[in-house]
Design a protein that fits this description.
The protein contains 10 helices and 12 strands. With about 280 residues, it is α/β, with parallel strands linked by helices. The protein folds into 2 domains: about 15-85 and about 185-265, D-Maltodextrin-Binding Protein, domain 2, CATH 3.40.190.10; about 95-180, Periplasmic binding protein-like II (D-Maltodextrin-Binding Protein, domain 2, 3-Layer(aba) Sandwich), CATH 3.40.190. The strands form 2 sheets. Strands 1, 2, 3, 4, 5, 11 and 12 form a 7-stranded mixed β-sheet that branches. Helix 1 packs across helix 7 and helix 8 (about 215-225) packs across helix 9. The longest helix is centred in the last third of the chain and has 16 residues, at about 250-265.
Length: about 280
């Protein structure tokens, strides 16, 4: 110590944790606090498709991300933030298999390149639920182009919300899953890499969701205008079709999903997810 007891050294500011947020309507309540600048001193937010977030988290270019549920079985060392997810208890409306033929006649399926979890889910639905063995091909999320070379197309996120269902045979994959298993389906969860070492980390993410739910009308107004959708449709989707809490039914559905994925060889084996806990040195 010199100069009247003042230290000559200053602590460097802690680098911000890099957080990947899915650029779909379904993630907005979870991320609303962050998107409105809350805790911007701690977190740097980037918007990406879900599959891209998983890749960036795997490659160490993100510290946390809202990732497809299947990727927790593929990327080592990730920890799930407790209590939070994107799930559906019945129809989800934004994860659809859109077909130009009756379901029994589906022979070729075009898969949305932005999806990982729903790609596994559509296989389970078609193969286990409908007894089909179609060919699969991965394409960009353009429904007309997808259906030009396939009988059916898996479409997720905001593009699925805009589909005119009256023109097609449509399977809502969350509703199909509920009918098949009796459980909710979990599409995505907040996952943290080992680099995300911050005391009380889950608090900030729960706070972001609380702000989104308490500001729902503002969120609905902004998102409806951005997407060109009716406010009532957006409100119903966020409040009736989706749930953001990882409870007993959601956990049971997640375990059943992993079990079925392992049985089909989509993943090597079903592993329990690890829940984030602060490191012993964190204070």
């Amino acid at each position: 110590m010199r100069g009247g007891g003042r230290s000559l050294f200053r602590l460097s500011p802690m680098p911000k944790l890099r957080v990947g947020v899915v650029n779909y309507l379904n993630s907005k309540p979870l991320a609303w606090g962050f998107l409105k600048g809350h805790h911007s001193d701690l977190f740097e937010i980037a918007m990406h498709p879900p599959a891209r977030i998983a890749d960036l988290l795997r490659d160490g270019e993100l510290d946390l991300g809202l990732i497809p549920a299947i990727e927790l079985q593929r990327i080592p060392h990730l920890k799930v933030l407790p209590d939070l997810c994107i799930a559906a208890n019945h129809e989800v409306r934004s994860v659809l298999l859109i077909s130009r033929v009756p379901a029994a006649e589906i022979r070729r399926v075009a898969l949305d390149e932005n999806s990982r979890t729903s790609v596994a889910l559509v296989r389970i639905i078609l193969e286990d639920g409908h007894g089909l063995r179609p060919e699969y091909v991965t394409l960009a999320a353009d429904l007309d182009a997808m259906l030009a070379g396939a009988d059916a197309a898996l479409l997720i996120g905001d593009p699925a919300l805009r589909v005119d269902r009256s023109k097609y045979v449509v399977l809502d994959l969350a509703a199909e899953w509920r009918a098949m298993t009796g459980h909710a389906f979990v599409f995505a969860l907040w996952a943290a890499a080992p680099s995300a070492d911050l005391p009380e980390l889950p608090f900030y993410f729960k706070s972001s969701l609380r702000y989104g739910l308490s500001s729902l009308e503002s969120l609905v107004r902004e998102c409806a205008a951005e997407l060109g959708l009716d406010r009532g449709e957006v409100r119903e989707y966020l409040t009736k079709n989706l749930t953001y809490f990882l409870r007993a039914d959601e956990r049971a559905g997640l375990q059943e999903f992993y079990r079925r994925c392992a049985a089909k060889g989509i993943i090597p084996a079903a592993q329990d997810i690890a829940i984030w806990q602060p490191s012993p040195s964190a204070d």
